[in-house]
Design brief:
Chain A is an alpha+beta fold. Chain A is built from 8 helices and 14 strands. In chain A, strand 13 and strand 14 form a beta hairpin. Chain B is 40% helix and 22% strand. In chain B, a hairpin with a 3-residue loop joins strand 11 and strand 12. The chains are: A alpha+beta (459), B alpha/beta (230).
Amino acid sequence: MAQRRPLSLQARSTVAAGLALAAFLGVTGFALDQAYYEATVAAMRDRLQSYVYAYLAGSDVLRGTKLLPPETLPDPEFNRPGSGLYAVVIGESNSLRWESPSALGRELAFDARLPVGEIRFEGPIDNAVGRVFVFSQGVSWEVDERRPVRLTVHVAQSEQQFLSQITAYRRTLARWLGALAIVLLLLQIALLRWGLSPLRKMVRDVDNVMNGDADRLPGQYPAELAPLTGSLNELIDFGREQLDRYRNTMSDLAHSLKTPLAVLRSEIDGDAGYHSLRRSVSEQSQRMHDIVSYQLSRATASRHQVFSTPLAIETAAEGIVASLEKVYAAKRVLCEFEIDSDARFFGAQGDLMELLGNLLENAFKWADRRVLFTAHVIKAPRMRRAGLELRVEDDGPGIPAEKVEHLLQRGVRGDERVQGHGIGLAIVQDIVKGYRGNLSVHGSDALGGAMFCVRFEAM
Amino acid sequence: MRVLLVEDEAPLRETLAARLKREGYAVDCASDGDEGLYLGREMPFDVAVIDLGLPKRPGMELVKALRDDGQRYPILILTARSSWQDKVEGLKAGADDYLVKPFHVEELLARLNALVRRATGWTKPILECGPVQLDTTAQSITVDSKPVDLTSYEYKVLEYLMLHAGELVSKADLTEHIYQQDFDRDSNVLEVFIGRLRRKLDPDGLLKPIETVRGRGYRFAIPRSDVTAD
């Protein structure tokens, strides 16, 4: 099953911001709507109550049975039939009932009789003329001293007007909130694009490197990205170095094989006898073997690594010495260690093994009875990595001073190496150089033979 | 000496086997790891040569399996890989020496010789028991510094007895370690060899180097002069 590509950072942020914005604006809109609704209802209640008072103030009751409405109505709408604004006054008996002209013939079912002084506001309730808000109040009307008339006044307004008011408000609110949402989203997208622009620049730069238009990632990056781009640059450099090394190894190999091949060809072309030819083939095949071994080990050694783990010297040295003690069992060489417990090599395991293996085998080969291996940490405060000094000493014949330089000549190639010390030392030199270390050869003060000293400075 | 040779490359295996036989070894060949393990468990070898890149069962596993099985004879591994990591791993698995391909056959012979000697406690290439000296590299014998001329089978019998000087060596041991599988194992032949050896080493009958332990075998009776032998 093909895995779906995860959403882009931009899409993620936009979706998240959009959802948050929608929730926030939704709640805000709902709260504003509720507040406006409640305020509108309260305003209507007040208005209806003022109509009730206006009716009470202007009306009169004739002989306790007939209501005389005020001369001027609180609102002309009470006079227009079906206007939506209705007034109904009822007395204690069914004989007293007055309805405003607007309510005529509309069968308003306002029959409730409220006790004196009680106020009721309801709505919206279903009614013959549709849904209405009703304000009702019970009053006692002092027509003469002996018999007060008890009345209940109902004033009603249809929902229609109220609804259109609310709808208009909601429309306005939605428009503004919508506009706000769009503005905020655009702003968010713009901010994101600005915030992520270094990443896009990085992608472009990497593309350039891949197309060969640039050597490395150029310029300055924000603090959060600088470590990443730094590492990328190191990786790019490492890859390039590696490629160069392989190329050099290949060409060294090819060139150095040409010499023995040329020798063989000249032997074949000449009229060399069987024995001479045999000796020649044997010599040259040995030479080719040495060249191949040397170049092979050079090619597989990984040299300086970008992300190197610290390797304990002691573990590696113990494995090698255990092996050498087996192989050189007949010599009964005693190998002593003096290893700082925190001595670490920063690099590839294979390189450390080659380095120690070749140096220690050399020592075992030349030693009479004793080999001393020392590993010291070179402490350097303010440095990220401590340095390391490795010493391999033996009690063998040692190396004459005039031969040391010859032994350590730079750029030793497989076909130019010093006889007798094998290709081991050339490999050691290559590795040490690859890790920017230094190899030197001295006489051993402790044991009297040779001392090989490898130093990696702190960095 | 009986040697186990496990190598999958036929030309190399055959050349080596032929050369080893010429040098006086009894050679058993295997072309893969499983066959190597079978032979290595069944036969009393003095030394084994095992290639690391084998079909069916890798050489490293073969070495481990032989050691787990309790086989103590020295093992030399052949490998095309020359990295120290490989060498250390191979020796850790139980091998005693390694040789990187390609190699000179003389180098292999010298290493095998040394391994066999070391396994029997001799540290020097010249085995010395009183006046009798046996040079394992030159394959020559001297008694009181005078050279003694031996045939190759006589030499092999003497070498085996001297390597195990002081120990009882049964007739079965001798035949198994010295003859090829298909060789006639008539014990009379062995007795003839021992008789000739006694006459050649000790014509005056004063030294009595080889003791017969009736019904059990032979013992080289002159103690080792090599004091550091363990």
